[in-house]
């Protein structure tokens, strides 16, 4: 009897130890996974990017075609990432796939450009849209003060950072809730547009394919704006180690999410053009607001709130996913070890989440919104193209490697070629921003060889760095992962 009691006590102690052990838990099922993708994709893009797509495509018909093609291209890319996510079970998304297929230098450059430029730029873009939709209704019809928009944007970013530092479960539930709200917002825009279209309001679609104003060098920028609105289909791959049954969940969630988003996006744009002329759409700073004032007079005050919450959901998804890339990069030795640590009680990658905050605040205070898209898109799409090319090379070199989900070869090749084509053409159509983005990416090469590749740093620097890391670890109450989760 004493032996049985002792065994129970040991089991209880073991259970307690398992719960206390420091590692990221598998807590993301199919519904949170779908919400995570849809909630990150549907952000500010669909409410702001229609202007950029129309401006660069030159006609209503062509802009709708761009929206549909961007959806198909994003679905192709998402299916490629479903194969990568089930072939390599580590978190980290782009970084992990480049590391496994093309080696450490491209992976480090992806990490470098993601955290110094891409993620802060995207987060500041989305948070500025959040601030605009919260503030502008109070000042209509006058322009809202930019300082106030930036202050509200900053509050939105601070809230999202706090949620993601506090709890993985809370961040996941916040994402599910905000996803349902934003889908309701899209339905609210689609219904009056479809009703008006059914009643014969089609004048804005007459001569929809006027190609006089189209210039081929501007077309990639139209695709960039459209693809930006679809951006986020790859974020589930950042958290592979936290997904329940990833071999089933990742392909299912990705396929369902991207088909749903494409249908909704095309219908929303049809609704916009039903109620607004192209000239009115181009003059609007906040397309959804102009649409609401025209088509939903009784509910026009609700739309800005729904759009603001939609932006908040995209911001939350980005802050949930991106730090995992940094977390994995630090675990692989490509970033300071402090960023591969987890809060001992909260079980969140606290240092990785916190690093983004000052960078976003810095980016938020500078930069014009459309330049940010073009600036970010070059590096983002170049590395996505490299990752899918790496997948094809890995298939050829290791045909026996287990691939629970395998995308058809024609889809993978088409997506990779189109990505490289868009990236190449963008260098021609917007050489200043894309050249700047390319140059900033290349600044990571000397950093890689000086720090990661171990042209050894001076001993004094290493001592100071190690001391600072130790103090930060104590201050933040973080520790290394104790269980291998991949």
From TrEMBL:
InterPro entries: AA/rel_permease1, AminoAcid_Transporter
Molecular function (Gene Ontology), one example: L-amino acid transmembrane transporter activity
Sequence intervals crossing the membrane: 28-48, 60-82, 116-135, 147-168, 180-198, 218-238, 250-275, 295-315, 348-366, 372-393, 405-428, 434-453
Gene3D superfamilies reported for this sequence: Amino acid/polyamine transporter I (1.20.1740.10)
Broad class of where this protein is predominantly found: membrane
Topology in the lipid bilayer: Multi-pass membrane protein
Signal peptide bounds: none
Keyword Membrane: yes
Places the protein is found: Membrane
GO cellular component, one term: membrane
Keywords: Membrane, Transmembrane, Transmembrane helix
Name recorded for this polypeptide: Cystine/glutamate transporter
